[in-house]
Amino acid sequence: MILIKATAGGVSLRVKVRPRAKRDAITGIHDEALKLSLTAPPIEGRANDAVIDFFAQLLRLPRSSITIAAGHTSRNKVVRISGISASTLEQRLVELLANSQ
Predict the structure, then answer these.
(1) Cα–Cα distance measured from residue 15 to residue 76, given in angstroms and rounded to the nearest whole number
(2) Which of 55, 56, 77, 98 has the fewest beta carbons closer than 10 A?
(3) What's the mean per-residue pLDDT of the chain?
(4) What pLDDT was estimated at residue 100?
(5) What is the per-residue pLDDT for 101?
(6) Options 3.30.1200.10, 3.40.1360.10, 3.40.1010.10, 3.40.630.40; which CATH number does 4-100 get?
(7) Nearest to 82 by CA among 3, 1, 7
């Protein structure tokens, strides 16, 4: 299960990023973190930008609603998303994980 924390005005969740993958996709769950594969390399913040783009497209939110709260130079990140509730995010992720299997 993914640990989603409600924050003031949004949510935060842990993400484990695998850069330089063949395609952008959610690939599972590991230690309460969402595993995310991205084609972007981990150079000059490109993977961080790809994480923000991925969640913005996935949740149909503006890029400004998504920030990397921790782990800017690590594969393990904390992503903060404003303008969405924990239950809505959890429901959307459950749907996506069910469709990917």
Answers:
(1) 6
(2) 98
(3) 90
(4) 64
(5) 58
(6) 3.30.1200.10
(7) 7
What is the residue extent of each domain of the chain?
A: 4-100
With CA atoms as reference, report the closest residue to 93 among 19, 23, 4: 4
Whether residue 51 contacts residue 38, with contact meaning beta carbons closer than 8 Å, is answered with: yes
pLDDT in tens, 38-53: 999 999 999 999 999 9
Which of these, 58, 98, 43, 24, lies nearest to 13 by C-alpha position?
Answer: 58
Within the chain, strands assigned E span 4-7, 10-18, 25-30, 33-37, 66-70, 76-82
Q: How would you classify the pairing of strands 33-37 and 66-70?
A: unpaired
